[in-house]
Design goal:
This protein is of the alpha+beta class. It folds into two domains: about 80 residues, Phosphorylase Kinase, domain 1, CATH 3.30.200; about 210 residues, Aminoglycoside phosphotransferase (APH), C-terminal lobe (Aminoglycoside 3'-phosphotransferase, Chain: A, domain 2, Alpha-Beta Complex), CATH 3.90.1200.10. About 40% of the residues lie in helices and about 15% in strands. The chain contains ten helices and eleven strands. The strands form four sheets. The chain has a five-stranded antiparallel sheet with strand order 1-2-3-6-5, covered by helices on one side.
Length: about 325
C-alpha cells in the first residue's frame, strides 16, 4: 500500500493527474501517461524485479504474434516508490463478461484464447532465461538444465513451506507428493519454449469486439520449458471463481485435446495439479486465503487424479 501523501507528491512531481487513474493490480497502481504510455507506481521493493522485466521485454522477438506485449521504457527509483513508464496496450479486461456469454460467444472466445496461448510458445528470446525461471524465488542447487528436474527441485523447496498445511487438508498427501517426485524424475524430452506462467482472461486485454489485443503480466511464473504447462494453466486458471461451471470449462479442455491430440490429456492434468501444489501459498504465507482453498480443492479432486492412472507408469 502506497501512502496517500507519497502518492500525491509523486503524481504532482511527474504531472500525472489523479483522474488519470486506470486501475490497480496486485502490485501496481496504473495511470494514463501521454497518448501511448502508462505510468505505474510500485512499492520500492519492486525495483530489482522491474529491472529484470525490462531486460526480458527488450529481449522478446514478437514478430510472430499478432497481439501486443508489454514494454518498460523507463524505471525511476524514488525514496518510497518505484515508477515505471510503460507501453500502453489498449483494451479491457474481459473476465467479468464471460459468465454472460452464450454458447457461440464462449466457443469463439475459447478458440481465440487457445490460439493466443499456443502463439506464445512461438516467441523467441534474444537472451535465454537462465535456469528456466525468470524471477528466482528459490536458489536451486546447480540450476538443472532439464525441465523436469527443475520442476522437481522447485517442488522440494516449496514443500518446506507448505507441507505442514497440506498434510492436514489434502487426502493421501504424502503419496501424492511422492508421485510428483517420481514423475519428475524422468528426463524431459521436449523443447524449452517461453511460458507466460499466469495466462488467464484477467491478464488479457481485448478490443470492443472481444478480440485479444494484448497479453500482460509476465513475471512470477514466467519460465522456459514445456509449453503444455502454460496450456494447462490457461485451463485451470480460466474460471477461478466457478462462474462458468464444469460443463463449459470441460468444453475448453476438450478443445485443447482435439487441437493437440489425446496424448496431451494426462500431462495437462499433471501440470494443473502441480501448479495447485506449487502456488498454494502464493498469496498467503500461512495458507489461510481463498487461493489456498482452491489449491486444496484441486489436490483433493479425484476426477483429476483419475486422469493420471496410467501416466508415466
Amino acid at each position: 500500500m502506497i501512502k496517500q501523501n507519497v502518492r500525491s507528491s509523486i503524481l504532482k512531481k511527474y504531472n500525472v493527474n489523479e483522474n488519470d487513474f486506470l486501475g490497480k493490480g496486485q502490485e501496481a497502481e496504473v495511470y494514463s501517461y501521454h497518448q501511448d504510455r502508462v505510468f505505474k507506481l510500485y512499492r520500492v521493493s519492486a525495483f530489482e524485479k522491474q529491472k529484470i522485466l525490462k531486460s526480458f521485454y527488450e529481449s522478446i522477438n514478437a514478430n510472430v504474434v499478432d497481439f501486443n506485449l508489454p514494454r518498460i521504457y523507463e524505471i525511476i527509483k524514488e525514496k518510497e516508490v518505484v515508477i515505471t513508464i510503460e507501453k500502453r496496450i489498449e483494451g479491457r479486461n474481459i473476465q467479468k463478461d464471460l459468465s454472460n456469454f452464450d454458447y457461440d460467444q464462449l466457443n469463439a472466445f475459447f478458440k481465440q484464447y487457445l490460439s493466443t496461448i499456443l502463439n506464445i510458445k512461438q516467441i523467441k528470446l534474444e537472451q535465454k532465461i537462465e535456469g528456466h525461471k525468470l524471477l528466482k524465488d528459490y536458489e536451486i542447487p546447480n540450476q538443472p538444465a532439464d525441465w523436469n528436474e527443475f520442476l522437481k527441485q522447485s517442488l522440494i523447496q516449496k514443500n518446506k513451506e507448505v507441507e505442514k498445511y497440506l498434510i492436514k487438508d489434502v487426502k493421501d498427501y504424502e503419496s501424492k507428493y511422492l508421485y510428483f517426485l517420481n514423475v519428475l524424475s524422468k528426463k524431459y524430452e521436449g523443447e524449452d519454449d517461453l511460458i507466460h506462467g499466469d495466462f488467464y482472461p484477467s491478464n488479457l486485454l481485448v478490443s470492443d469486439d472481444s478480440k485479444i489485443n494484448g497479453v500482460i503480466d509476465f513475471g512470477l511464473m514466467t519460465m522456459s520449458g514445456d509449453y503444455l504447462f502454460d496450456v494447462a494453466l490457461s485451463w485451470i486458471l480460466f474460471d477461478l471463481y466457478d462462474e462458468l461451471g464444469a460443463v463449459k470449462l470441460n468444453h475448453y479442455v476438450n478443445m485443447i485435446i482435439e487441437t493437440l491430440g489425446e496424448e496431451v490429456k494426462e500431462i495437462l492434468y499433471f501440470y494443473a495439479l502441480y501448479y495447485s501444489y506449487y502456488s498454494a501459498n502464493f498469496f498467503s504465507e500461512n495458507c489461510s486465503d481463498g487461493h489456498y482453498e482452491w489449491s486444496v480443492r484441486n489436490l483433493n479432486n479425484e476426477t483429476y487424479w483419475a486422469e493420471l492412472k496410467d501416466y508415466m507408469k
